[in-house]
Amino acid sequence: MSTQPTPAHNDDSPAFLPYPPTGDNLEHVPVHVRPDAFYYRARMGFLPNAVKLYLHVPWIAEHLFRLNNAVMRDQRNGLDEEFKYGLAFAISRTNGCPYCVAHHACTLERRWQYDEQDLKDALDPAAPRNEREAVAMEFVRQASKDAASVTDEKRAALAKNFTPSEVMEIVLLAGFWKMYNFMHITMAVPIEDPLLAYKKWSTSDAARQS
Fold it and tell me: How far apart are CA 203 and CA 208, in angstroms?
């Protein structure tokens, strides 16, 4: 990874707050969160609007970035990233967060070559999938809709198909994206221009029409 990646796109989509200055080489980003900002920009080709808003409170943002990395990408996790991004895609769609849905759809296509049918299947509760994925998808969807309605049967099914640490990864993933979805919806974070085409997956018609 380059230490000074050149962004492929500088997005100026207005948010309800002005974005803090970052600088061409992120020289205005506080040093303790600069590596995270470099990572996001290198991975996406631009600095995501949500990240820019978090940089208004970098002493809090650093913990959000670390939690995101721990939940989604830590190599000590038992569940792989593709599986987790598929769950996150369904969770964010259930929670009604267009910003996160667009990002997840783009990530699934860019990193794992998902096509339109793959993305459609990822959001379809009836799509063919193995028992583990079906159980996890049902659990995170129900937990996202109404955590109190998750039954002992659903918890037992999760515990039967996953190790205790994997179960906790799934629970923490659902809770993490519930928080992120809530914040991004509340702030109405603008979807960056390169990802606007993926916004369609946040609507109920997308899976049927694609």
Answer: 10
